[in-house]
Amino acid sequence: MEGKSGSWLLLMMVVMGWSVTSSSASFGDHYHRGSRKTDATSSLGFNRAAPSSIVLPVHGNVYPTGSYNVTLNIGQPPKPYFLDPDTGSDLTWLQCDAPCVRCTPAPHPYYRPNNDLVACKDPLCEALHSPGSHKCDVPEQCDYEVEYADGGSSIGVLLRDSFSLNFTSGLQLRPKLALGCGYDQLPGSSYHPIDGVLGLGKGKTSIVSQLSSQGLVRNVIGHCLSGRGGGYFVFGDDIYDYSRIVWTPMSLDYSKHYSPGPAELMVDGKSTGIGNLRMVFDSGSSYTYLSSQVYQFLTSWLKRELTGKPLKEAPDDRTLPLCWKGRKPFKSIRDVKKYFKPLALRFNSGRKDTAQYELPPEAYLILSSMGNVCLGILNGTEVGLQNYNIIGDISMQDKMVIYDNEKQMIGWAPGKCDHLPKPRSGFSFW
Ligand SMILES: *[C@@H]1O[C@H](CO)[C@@H](O)[C@H](O)[C@H]1NC(C)=O
Ligand SMILES: *[C@@H]1O[C@H](CO)[C@@H](O)[C@H](O)[C@H]1NC(C)=O
Ligand SMILES: *[C@@H]1O[C@H](CO)[C@@H](O)[C@H](O)[C@H]1NC(C)=O
User: Fold this and answer.
1) 253 lines ligand 3 (CB under 6 A)
2) Residue 365: HSE in the Cβ half-sphere, 13 Å Cα cutoff
3) 166 C-alpha to center of ligand 2: Å?
4) Which residues form the active site (predicted)?
5) Do 270 and 367 belong together in one domain?
6) Cis ω on the peptide bond leading into residue 64 (within 30° of 0)?
7) What number is the average pLDDT over the span 147-170?
8) Which letter, b or e, does each residue of 340-352 get, where b requires 16 or more Cβ atoms within 10 Å of its Cβ?
9) How far apart are CA 287 and CA 36, in angstroms?
10) Cis peptide leading into residue 77 (ω within 30°)
11) What is the pLDDT of residue 37?
12) Catalytic residue list
């Protein structure tokens, strides 16, 4: 496996001007033929005042799996789907039998759409398109196209269906939320068989933003990915112990992505002078990416640091571009902790104080199947990220990372991610 790790970070979203009549494969055909009816049960009866959260266990790991998924039950009756949770994009979509023009293999049967279409003029549809480019050739439907940083894409139509969700308050609700019925998917370089993507970005269409506008949870997303694989996502702010978290303001310069603004790279507790890095937190990316110059600096520094140490570069190990072997195969990253210094990112929020994001060796190295260690920080320029730098899953392990869209803050704290959190009363996960 070459270092083709990927990113769901959204790069582009455009309207397609897809016509119902001009394409035999268009979504509209489904409705010409079909006579599906939506089940009109939507009495929610929830208590808007009750603070509540949703906790979703996540499966997967950085290596060897290279992806994560959460299970959501969607539709009436609800059916399970494995979705890739992505803080780098807003839209949730499922591979969809509309019928499907091009779908990729999926763990479950493709989603069968209902006919509860989101109209083109709906604010949720408008939020998906850049202002000015939003045309409504077919007013009753909302066409979308998303393209991700790894080259993967989905084209489809927005509709509403019910999501079965368990809240920490004990309630089980089935709110109707907008999702994409994706009938034309192209796999990207980091392709894994998946039923769809769970969009957790900043925008209005994000699932948490929709839940929040229905008064069900606060627009706050947290995740805790365990270094041993698995972990969980949390929607809502019911279960955080706010005192332990390092907070930094979300940068307003990035309207689409979660970023605390410019960072400086620190190595072994020392300043490098490499500042102004545009960092984006992206759970849809397994690895961390630095743009070419910073990547160049880091790899040269690592190579210098390792001279005279009992580790040799292992070009025969193709797991990732840069691997090192020891005298005998390593069993754990702990075996090399004395050779690899901690890195850190220092965010200067413009206020007096700075927030530091620590990257111990576990946050930037993987243990390959050959028993070598490989650098899990990759050259972002090589994959077309230009001057974006991405903090991927590898660097978010064993941390609680929180995106608070209510307060426009990003926070993090060391976290024990192996156990699901319980509601705040008498609970602590540190
Ligand atoms: C998704 O998670 C399930 C467990 O819920 C697991 O069996 C499956 O292999 C995972 N799929 C992918 C593509 O990671
Ligand atoms: C929600 O709770 C119900 C009842 O406790 C349980 O059967 C179901 O598996 C839960 N669903 C999810 C997605 O956790
Ligand atoms: C990073 O990728 C770019 C584009 O492919 C390449 O020109 C550059 O040499 C690479 N940098 C390093 C340090 O490998």
Assistant:
1) no
2) 26
3) 6
4) 86, 282
5) yes
6) yes
7) 94
8) bbbbbbbbbbeee
9) 42
10) yes
11) 28
12) 86, 282
